[in-house]
Specification:
Blueprint lengths: L2 H18 L5 E9 L6 H12 L8 E7 L1 E5 L4 E5 L14 E5 L3 E8 L1
Parallel strand pairs: 1-2
Antiparallel strand pairs: 1-6, 3-4, 3-5
Helix pairs in contact: 1-2
Bound molecules: zinc ion (ZN).
The site of zinc ion has 7 residues, from loops.
């Protein structure tokens, strides 16, 4: 389950940010998860709660937003909407689409008490 290592990364960022903001308890974390990142929001939520235990992020509310995916279709020579990784191009039906957006997970904002 790669969500566990992702959750560890998130908690690390959150703790560093909270520490530089005065070391208060973290009450909420906003995450942006790309539709093509293969991150399962519910699995990440579960892992986050486990990893955040005994840290400044313990009990923090996780707000997850999912960003749509996009890719560059080589045959069409244009950017197309991608619902999932390895989906075919909606215009030509081919699989030569290079993902360009929605492949990452980012911490957008952190609320510190
Ligand atoms: Zn195409």
């Amino acid at each position: 389950m790669h969500e566990m290592s992702l959750a560890e990364g998130v908690v690390k960022i959150v703790e560093e940010t909270a520490a530089s903001a005065g070391g208060g308890r973290v009450t909420a974390v906003w995450l942006d998860i790309g539709a093509l990142s293969a991150v399962e929001p519910e699995a990440l939520r579960f892992c986050f709660d486990a990893v955040a235990r005994d840290t400044l992020a313990q009990g923090a509310r996780l707000e997850i937003a999912v960003t749509a995916g996009a890719g560059w279709c080589l045959p069409c020579g244009r950017t197309v909407v991608l619902g999932a990784l390895y989906d075919p191009c909606p215009w030509c039906g081919r699989h030569q689409v290079q993902p360009t957006a929605g492949t990452e997970m980012r911490v957008i904002e952190i609320e510190v008490e």
